[in-house]
Amino acid sequence: MQRSILKIDVNNELDVVLAYKRAMQLSERLGMQQANQTKFATAVSEICRNVIEYVGNGTIQYSLTEVSGYKYLEALVTDRGRGIGNLELILARTDYNNNGSRGTGIINSKKLVDLFEIESDSERGTRVRLGKRLSQTGPTVTYHALEKWVEEFNHESDISPYAEIKRQNMQLLEVLEQLRMRNLEAEQQLQEIRRLNTQLQQSNHDVSQLLEEREKKNHMLQEINQSLDAFAHTVSHDLRAPLQNINGITTALEACLEAGQFEEANFVLPMLRQQTQKMDRLITGILAYSLAGHHNLPKKALDLQVLLHQVISSLNVPASFVIEVQDDLPVLYTQEVYLYQVFSNLIGNAIKYHDRPEQAHLQVSYTLGSDWLYFTVIDNGPGVAPELQQQIFDMYETGQSFPQADSSGLGLSIVRKIIEEKGGKVWVESEGRGSRFSFTWPKAELIQEGL
Description:
By secondary structure, the protein is of the alpha+beta class. Helix content is 51%, strand content 19%. A 5-stranded antiparallel sheet has the order 1-2-3-5-4. A hairpin with a 3-residue loop joins strand 4 and strand 5. Its EC number is 2.7.13.3.
C-alpha cells in the first residue's frame, strides 16, 4: 500500500532546504520521535543536495507506505542524469569519514534511515528510496488529513535564506557524525569493561574455589595430624606393655636358669611365647591399619563367594559355630585385600566375642541398591550397648567389658578406614542380644552378568 502526499521539484539549494523542512514537518505530524525526524530529514537533504551538485535538477515525492506489516514515511528522490557509474563500489566502502568525498551523502543517508534502495543507470538516471519506520501507536492518517496538510504547506510563509539552513545542516551532520563516533567508542569501552568484569568474576570464582579447597585440605591435615598424634601415643603405649612383660619374663627366666630351677623355667616359657604372640598381633594390626586406604593397590575381578570361603577357612571357627553365606554374592572389580580385611575382621570379631559358641549363628548377605551394594554380617552374640555403637569403630575400642588376649583393638577401625576410602559407610545395629554390622560398597565396581 502506498499513498502519495506531496511532490517537490529540486532545482536549487532553496529547494533542498524546502525538502528538509517538509521531511521534518511530515515526520513530526506522523508521530515520529525527534531524533528520527532529524535523521530522516537529514538523509533527504543529503540525497537532494547530490541531485543539485551532480545533475542540476530532479524531484522528491513523499508517500506513506507499508512493508511487511510496518508503516513508513517514504521519500523518493529521482533525477534524469547520467547515473552513478561506480555505485557498487560506493555502497561497498566503509571508510568514509564525512570528508566530502564522492558518495559520502549516499552512505550517510543509508545509515540514517530504515529502508534504503537505490537504482542508477545512464538511460533512466538515479532513483533513491528512503524510508523511516513509523510508530505502531502513531496517529491514524486519513486522505482528507493529507490534503489539509498539503494545503497548509502551500500557504506557508517564505522559507528563510537557504545559505543559513545549509550551514546549520552541515553543522548538524558533523555533530551527528561526532556523536556516532563517540557512541562507537563508548560501545567498545563498554564491551571491554564487560570482558574485564567477566574475567574478574571468573578469577574471583577461581580464587574462592582455591581458598575453599585449601581450607578443606587444611582441615583434613589437622584431622590427620590429630589422628597421627593419637595413633602414635596409643601405639607407643600398647607396644611398651608387652615389651615390658617380655623383659620381666626374660629376667625371671634367667634367674631360674642360673638357680637350676628348670621346672620353673618351663612354666615361664609359655608366658614369654604368649607375650611375643600378642606383640606380633598388635604389629600386624598396625600395619593393616596403615595400609588401609592406599589408592595404588591393584584391582582384579573378585568373586565374593570364593573370597568369603577363603576368609572363613583362614579363621579359627569352632565346630559348633554355624555360618550362612548368601548363595548369589556378586563379582566385583576391586582391591581384594580391602574386602578380605573387612570380612575377616567382621566375621572374626563375631567369632572372637561370642559368649555362647555352642549356640552361635552367623549370616552374611547383601542387597543391591541404586548406587551402592549393601552388605550385612549378623550374629546372635552378646550384642553392643547403644552407648558403645559409635566408639567401637575407634582405634583400640572393642566395646567389651572383658579382656581378649588375642585382640589388637584395631579391627573395626581398619574396617571403617577402608569403607570410608571407598566412599561408603559402616555402622552397627544392636538391641539386646545379637549385632547387625552393615557397610556399603560402590555399585560402580559391580561386574554385570553377561559383560
